[in-house]
Specification:
The chain has 3 domains: 94-304, Transferase(Phosphotransferase) domain 1 (Transferase(Phosphotransferase), domain 1, Orthogonal Bundle), CATH 1.10.510; 335-591 and 875-889, YVTN repeat-like/Quinoprotein amine dehydrogenase (Methylamine Dehydrogenase, Chain H), CATH 2.130.10; 594-869, TolB, C-terminal domain (Neuraminidase), CATH 2.120.10.30. Helix content is 15%, strand content 37%. It has 890 residues and is an alpha+beta fold. The strands form 14 sheets. The protein has a 6-stranded antiparallel β-sheet with strand order 1-2-3-4-6-5, with helices on one face. Strands 27, 28, 29, 30 and 31 form a 5-stranded antiparallel β-sheet that branches. Strands 52, 53, 54, 55 and 56 form a 5-stranded antiparallel β-sheet that branches. It has 12 helices and 59 strands. A hairpin with a 6-residue loop joins strand 17 (419-424) and strand 18 (431-435).
Length: 890
Amino acid sequence: MTLDAGAKLGRYEIRSKIGEGGMGEVYRARDEKLNRDVAIKVLPANFSQNGDRLRRFEQEAQATGTLNHPNILAVYDVGTHDSELYVVSELLEGESLKDRLLEGPISQTKAVNYAIQIAHGLAAAHEKGIVHRDVKPDNLFITNDGHVKILDFGLAKLALPSADAAAQTDVATRKVHTDPGAVMGTPGYMSPEQVRGRIVDHRTDIFSFGAVLYEMLSGRRAFKGDSAIETLNAILKEDPAELSGSNSHISTPVERVVWHCLEKSPERRFQSAGDIAFALESLSAVTSHPSQQTITAGPSVRAERTWTRERLVWLGTCVLLFGLVSVLSYAYLSRSKTTTHAVRLTLANPDKATLPMRVTVSPDGQRVVFIASNAQGKRGLWIRSLDSLTAQAFASTDDASSPFWSPDSRYIGYFANGKILKIDAAGGRPQTICDAINDGGGAWNRDGVILFGGSRGLMKVDAQGGTPTLVTKIDSREEAHRWPSFLPDGRHFVFLADAATTEDHHIRVGSLDSQDSSILFGAVSRIQYVSPGYLVYVSQGALVAQPFDADKLKVTGEPLTIGEHIRDVGANHEFDFSVSENGVLAYQSGSPNSELTWFDRTGNKLGSVGEPDSYASVALSPEGQRVAAGMFDADGRLSDIWLFDVTRNGSKSRLTFDPQSDGDPIWSPDGTRIVFDSNRTGDGHTYLYVTSASGTDDAQRLSSANGDIDSFPTSWSQDGKTIFITHFFGYPHAGVWMVTVSGDYQAKPLLQSPDFDQAEASLSSDGRFIAYSSTESGRPEIYVRNFPLSERKWTISSEGGEYPLWSRDGKELFFITIDGKVMSAEIKSGAAFEIGVPRQLLQTRIKLNSGTCPYDVTRDGSRFLIKVETEATNLAPMTVVLNWTSDLKR
């Protein structure tokens, strides 16, 4: 049944038809309740006639809906209309891989990039016990910004076997159940076990994946006969033609990956999609040409070793290379500039210091500056010459972030405590340049102009100091302009336009002579221009170099991978890499994962909640048996809120499902509701929403005149009547507002100033006092005031503090220092308010400046649940590559 524009399916209003196929018709529709556009696939009526199959499908659709992965289509809802089943999912803009393949084969670089994304998506599904069973180009979608989405998990369970011997391009997905004897899948992409009707597992998707990768590289199907029967016979008995024989640009290592996927026996294939991703990522940084290698003559001479052995061989090679690094690095530094080979080495962490982050190479390539904490927990700038074995800490650079060099490599600029400062690389006292409450990265040109990012746009200031002026303006769909990098002329620059949605993130090019800028391409990363003509940034975790003509201001080729698993060190896509003007590249590799860890008051680790993941914030329920956690997605943006059951080994369930950013959950005092912030309206702003903690109700926006715009919640009063929020009421400062949780949700300011931030308010359990952080002294400190407000104010912290939390009995006030210590101040609030001297309870690896609360405390104050970086991340060394562009030339 074809639906007309304006027709209603439940709460969804049809806007237009956007596609159709063997599995039904697809429409663009509007979700009126959540005010968003969605895609609706309406399946034929006969698919829902069998009750058992319908129930199985709904169960699988629900399981798929729990998948939270950037390479899997998000499923929002399943329903029926006039006996026809429909599935509601996120709306994608782009084209299917099938449509893209009509244009011919895909370049190896891009095909491998797509394949890595597909493999990661399949790995996430397989980890949940979900097998696709119908991986093919029709079910893979390429968005306009180059992301690949896997479509139609579970739909194969509805399709009946067809008796029609149509051409294989018209044969619908075939799947009834997983019992032996049932033919399932699409001819041309089915695994041998599917053809034989045997029981299948996740390895059937690996075979289909291999067929898809073969087709991307060659432009032709791996298995194709004149009829469906002949195609199925080819899958069972024949091997595809060699890839390198028809396309000399396909490297032998990539071809081996394809053959390893297309093994007839499941036991001889890759045993997990994660292994495929690992293999391709290992190869993606290496260019190879058949003329430089021995060509492998197809499947008959494929390597007999398992991937486990291949990994061991690879690891052994790396160990041997590491032993040569020290010799090679010294030899390289003494060689002439005509050297044509890249040399890689690692720099050990400074003695008694934490893991270095935000490594920044000087323009002359002689030194690196980075951020680390010393043995006393003080975070600041460190510097190291590449010909030295030691690093030195700069004095008086406490709380430094986002360093950047002057073009003559003499000075280092950085952000700290709401200001931009500079310090001589030889040492000395820092000098203040200007105020800059937002740390959006800086760039310094040869005319002495410093460009820096912020929520209004890029600002410029003289390097000798002065008042900043606006250079660019953000548009209605953007949130900020960040991470500028000057081009060679010193007037033009590139930067990241940060936005509310991933698809609205762009790399833009602008000029000091105009506030206008233009889009170059979509990306979600800090970016740097590098001679002799590359834009270096991070894409899907890989560091890539995009050829770029700085004179014509346009890209000139496809991005080339130069590093893997680049570490994200901040909440605003501040990936950890840097490149000098003369060919020195430095970066930090490592997982972005964190874990929710229990500590006692003395710092002893007591266990954890859930598995390591990309957590953003944490909030304990009032009774202490549940945890609400905001999560980051693969691009480092807030994604959804999940709930964890502490009493059931941290079992988790998803609370929010919107494709936009949901985060910063706060529990109601009775534990029945959760308030959070979200940008789901798509207008570039965040708003407050309340939902049932059981997940049974749709989130409702707390509509108000202006108090819930660009805000995040921090505390909910014990009487349940008031929510306290941090509200960004205007550039550049934040204030504390109150929102009443009844009637018209009236919002009103409580604490705000045009000169400094006041944020992170927490109300005591008896409702008499409010604690908050303020930058009125030049850096964030904790203060307490009477509530309702009076003129009386008490200063709690003295060496920096954020995120105040009251104990349930009101006798202690906890907060976090800038260097990650959990502090406690004893409170006596009888006839007079008395404060004890704050004392350290435990030292943590909490990362501040993320905008989200990283810890919570149990009702009795005996245990803390803290979001900390995983140990694996902390052990990652700093990688330096000398003459990195030679790999690109090869």
